[in-house]
Amino acid sequence: MKFIGITGGIGAGKSELLRYIQKHYKCEIYLADQAAHEVKQAGTACYRELVELLGQGVLNSGGEIDRQRMAEKIFSSPDLLEQVNHIIHPAVKEYLLDRLKAAREKGEAELFFVEAALLVECGYGGLVDEMWYIYADEETRSRRLSQSRGYSGERIGQIMGSQLSEQSFRKACDFVIDNSGTLEESFRQIDRKLEAYSWRE
Q1: Where in the sequence is the domain holding 20, given as residue range(s)?
Q2: CATH number at residue 175
Q3: Are the C-beta atoms of 117 and 12 separated by less than 8 Å?
Q4: How far apart are CA 84 and CA 65, in angstroms?
Q5: Contact 84/74 with Cβ under 8 angstroms?
Q6: For the whole model, what pTM was predicted?
Q7: Using 50, 70 and 90 to split pLDDT, how confident is the model at 197?
Q8: Tens digit of pLDDT for each residue in 39-78?
Q9: 76-91: string of b/e by CB count within 10 Å (b at 16+)?
Q10: Cystine design at 115: which of 6, 37, 128, 167 (Cβ 3.0–4.6 Å)?
């Protein structure tokens, strides 16, 4: 079973391509954002560490960590943000590796995908068999974000400016899918890549 990381800048279309892969290949797909939500659930070690660090004020009425309250608390403090990342990122990595182990033992999936914008920064390059970069030019990404999420040009610029450059993504990744054109063109790139593996022949 191949362990493949999927990364790329905001608006590149990672989710759309993963939906295609999910439909057409025997695989398991995990989103790091969803995994981060899971590891913060009440009762987990990550939850206890975060509440100890940030205080009871980040909890909602049900005793769960409120994402908005946590964001408000940490994003005005770079030091606090770094401490939170040092708690969450290892917990997410452990969660995903546990799922990978379970998938291998189950033996049904041929591919195991993990998607996140920060895979490179979080050191997944040393864990995955391959790292894929979903690329789209900035104009295309900006148009998508404006149309699908209603983001302003200023917000799009801020987010893009905080992410890795195209050059850095390309340097860190083994395979690039150009998703600047139609989805059908991107799907063909995926099929050519996955069907080239000997275990698909």
Answers
A1: 1-26+110-196
A2: 3.40.50.300
A3: no
A4: 13
A5: yes
A6: 0.88
A7: low
A8: 999 999 999 999 999 999 999 999 999 999 999 888 878 8
A9: eeeeeeebbeebbbeb
A10: 6
